[in-house]
Design brief:
Elements lengths: L2 H16 L15 E4 L5 E4 L6 E12 L2 E13 L4 E14 L2 E16 L2 E8 L6 E5 L6 E4 L13 E5 L1
Antiparallel strand pairs: 1-2, 3-4, 3-10, 4-5, 5-6, 6-7, 7-8, 8-9, 9-10
Length: about 160
């Protein structure tokens, strides 16, 4: 197995393990939030108004300006019915450095929003990187990268991450 696959698999196992209630504080009868900690050290504040903590995974090869593409492997953690959560994104730049693949891990928060009947996820990294927004494709649940103006790229290149079920 190559390093990229092993790293991605280990990250996903750690994040999915973090979803379990064994790491959560006990919720009291008054509906106070509980906390579940993910691998980025941040907590997902569970709220008794919402459902169980779930994870979703998305994958896609998006265009790169100076190479064959960027593999995106995205894991979202949130509560069912909630419009926010935390994420982990492994980006691998294919042939990114002297012909070798280069991987970067990004973590942060995400929030869902709606504008003109369209649904979006905005991802805000913990680092100094700029936030990115993806349009939620219905009914598949796939995600398509959009610009700050919430419009898709004019090119015919693929900017979609497929939801892995």
């Amino acid at each position: 197995m190559n390093l990229k696959i092993m790293t991605t698999a280990a990250l996903c196992v750690l994040m999915l393990g973090a979803c379990g209630n064994r790491n959560a504080k006990t919720d009291d009868a008054k509906g106070k939030p509980t906390t579940t900690t993910a691998t980025n050290g941040k907590g997902l504040n569970a709220d008794s108004r919402y459902g169980t903590i779930v994870s979703e995974r998305y994958y896609g090869l998006l265009p790169a300006a100076d190479g064959p593409g960027i593999d995106y492997d995205l894991v979202l953690i949130r509560q069912k019915g909630s419009n926010h959560g935390i994420y982990s994104l492994m980006m691998t730049y294919i042939e990114g450095e002297n012909g070798n693949d280069v991987s970067f891990l990004e973590t942060g928060d995400f929030a869902a929003s709606t504008k003109d009947g369209m649904k979006y996820f905005t991802f805000t990294p913990d680092s100094e990187s700029a936030a990115e927004t993806f349009y939620i494709v219905e009914p598949s649940g796939d995600l398509t990268l959009v610009g700050k103006d919430l419009k898709r790229a004019a090119s015919k290149l693929n900017y979609t991450l497929r939801r892995i079920k």
